[in-house]
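Researcher: We're teaching a course module on how sequence relates to structure. For the next exercise, students receive a sequence and then see the predicted structure as tokens, so they can try to spot secondary structure elements on their own. Here is the exercise chain.
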Amino acid sequence: MHKFLTRAASLLTLLLLAAPASAAWEDTVWGATPDATLAVLGETAKLIEENEGQRVWDQHFLIAREGSFHDIAVTQEFFFEDGERLSVIKIKPQNTAECGQFSDIVMDLLGEVQDTRQSEIGSVLFIARDFSDRESDNAMMLSSIDSDLETMQFCHLTYQPFGDGIPGERK
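Model: And here is the predicted structure for the students to work with:
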């Protein structure tokens, strides 16, 4: 457990160090309002016009910010339950060609996977790996889609409050 916490803290620290100096999202807390989250993230964060097609687990995508993670350009997306309380954060490479490197770095930092799910449809492989920790109140999931088709490459890291420990299941 200590090893997991150390790696999770390292990942969060690296993300924070990669963020612009004016941003301070380490001070963002689960349940914060969009206004409070924007205030903490600083001027690099932008309010997004909501689009139902961009929801994650029925959470409203309202704030985005660009940054970097281990020299990989990423977009950080902030989602809100009922459009009012910070509930999910998603980090994804801007260039999907860097998904392999991004996934390797995240796996190295987070260590042991609690659960892995995968499914294959034709030449498309979907993999979801869960990393959860009750003590830090985080449930994290590294998702990726791999395919021979360049347009089907995709990956991101989502995290949310621990809840029941299963990312995406908000209980």
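Model: If you want an answer key for the exercise: Confidence is low (pLDDT under 50) at residues 1-25. The first helix runs from residue 2 to 18.
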